[in-house]
Amino acid sequence: MILGWILRNGVCLDMILENSVLYLFVKCEAFDYATKVFESISVKDIVSWNIMISAYLKNGDLEKAVGIFWRMPFRNAASWNTVIDGHLQNGHERIAMQLLYQMVKTDAAFTNVTFSIALSLASSLKHVELGKQIHGRLLRVGTYDGFIMNSLIDMYCKCGETEKAVMVFKTLNQSVHDSVSVSSIVSAYIKNDRIEDALKVFTFMVSEHGEVDKFTLTSVLSACADAGLLYLGQLIHTYILKSGHEPDAFVSSSMIDMYGKCGQLQSASKIFKESDNRNVVLWTSIISCYASHGEGMETIRLFEMMVNEGIKSNEVTFVAVLTACSHAGLIDEGCSYFTLMKDVYGIKPEVEHYTCMVDLLGRAGRLNEIKGFIYENNISHTSAVWKAFLSSCHQHNNFEMAKWVCRKLYELEPSAAGPYVLMSKTFASDCRWEEAAKLKGLMKEKGIKKQPGQSWIQ
C-alpha cells in the first residue's frame, strides 16, 4: 500500500528509499517482491546487496545467497559476516569456515561482529586451532571488548581447553568479570569434573558481588544438568533458597531440567507444581523431563494441559513432544503434532524436529519413508538426520540401507567416527566379522578415533 502510494504520486526513489522498500519486503518475507525490487534497482549499493543475501539466507536458499554474494562488485565486512553467519546458522559449518578463510585472504578487516561469528564457528566445530588463530588476531589488533572476551572464554571451554579459558579469564580486569565469563568458567570446570575448582569460582563470585545473578544460576544449573551432578545442583538449589532469591521461570526451569537429567523426576515435578507463573519456558521444561524419561502418554497429557491453559507452544516444546512420541512408539500422534506445529502454530521445522521425525519413522521400521522425507524436506545436507537414519538401519538390521546411509555420512563428515562405529556394530550383530574388522581397519588407516564413553550421573 505504501509502495503503491509512492508510485502513484511520482515520488522519486533515491537509494535510501529503494533499500527501505527492499528491506520492508524481506522483513515481511515477501521474497518474490524483494527480488523484483532488487533487480529493478539500477545502481545498487552495498546495503542493497547485503539485504538480498540476508533474504536468501533467511529463506534457507544458501545457493542463491552465495550466488548474490559472488556477484557483488565489492564486499565489506558486513557482507562477509552475513554470508558466514548464514551458513553457520543453517548447519553448514565447514562451508562457513572456508568462507572465513577466504575473507582472511582478501585482507578484509575483522569487526567485533566478525570475531564473534568466528569464535561461535570455532565453538560449534570444537576446532581449537581455528579458535587459537582468532585469539592471535585479537591480540594483534588489541581488541578487548567484554563480549568478545566472553566469547573467547566460552570457545576454549567448549573445545575442552579449560586452562586456556582460565588464563584468558585471569588476564581480564576484575571489573570485567561479569556473570557470562564467570558462569562459562564454572560450567567448564563442571564439565571436566573439576568440582572443587567450580565451587571456588562460584564462591569467589558470591564474595566479590555479594550475590549471584540469575543468569549465572541458570548457566551453572544447566552445566550440572549436562554433567549429571546432582549433589552440586542441590547445593545451588539450597543457595537459592537461603539467599532469598525468588526463582523466576528461567531459574525454576533450570532446576527442573537439572533434577530431570539427574533422574529425580519427582523433585522436578514438585518444583513445577510449586511455581506460580507457569509460562512456556516452565511448561517446556517439565514436558521435556517426562519426554526424556520415556513417559510418552504423560508428556502428551502435559502438552494438552498447557494448550488448555492458553499457553502457546514454541519450537522447543515440540521437540520434546516429538521425542516423547518417538520413544513411546506413538507414530500417528507424532506425525499429527509435526503437522500441527507447521500448519497451526506456523513454526518452521529445525534440524531437531526433522531428526525426531526420522527417529519416529525409524523406530517403526518405516525406512523407505525416511528417504522420501529427507529429500522432500531438502535436508539431505544435514548430518544429524542421516545419523538418526543410520541408527534406525542398525536397529532393524537393514545392512544394504545402512551402507547407503553411511556413504552419505562419509561425504558430509569424513572424519567422524560415529558412522564407522555404528556400521561396524551392525555387521557384528549379524556375525559378519570380516566386514566389521575391515571398517575398524579403515578407521585406523584414516586416523579416526572413537571417543570413549563416560557416565557422569552421581
Describe this structure in words.
Helices cover 74% and strands 0% of the residues. With 458 residues, it is an all-alpha fold. Helix 10 packs antiparallel against helix 11 and helix 24 packs parallel to helix 26 (418-429). Residues 452-458 have low confidence and may be disordered.
Query: Strand percentage, roughly?
Result: under 5%
Order of helices and strands: HHHHHHHHHHHHHHHHHHHHHHHHHHH
Largest sheet: none
Low-pLDDT parts are: 452-458
Number of helices: 27
List the helices and strands and how they pair.
Elements: H1 2-8, H2 15-27, H3 31-40, H4 46-58, H5 62-71, H6 77-89, H7 93-105, H8 112-125, H9 128-141, H10 146-158, H11 162-171, H12 179-191, H13 195-209, H14 214-227, H15 230-242, H16 249-261, H17 265-274, H18 280-292, H19 296-308, H20 315-328, H21 331-343, H22 351-363, H23 367-376, H24 383-395, H25 399-412, H26 418-429, H27 433-446
Salient structural properties:
458 residues; single chain; 27 helices; mainly alpha
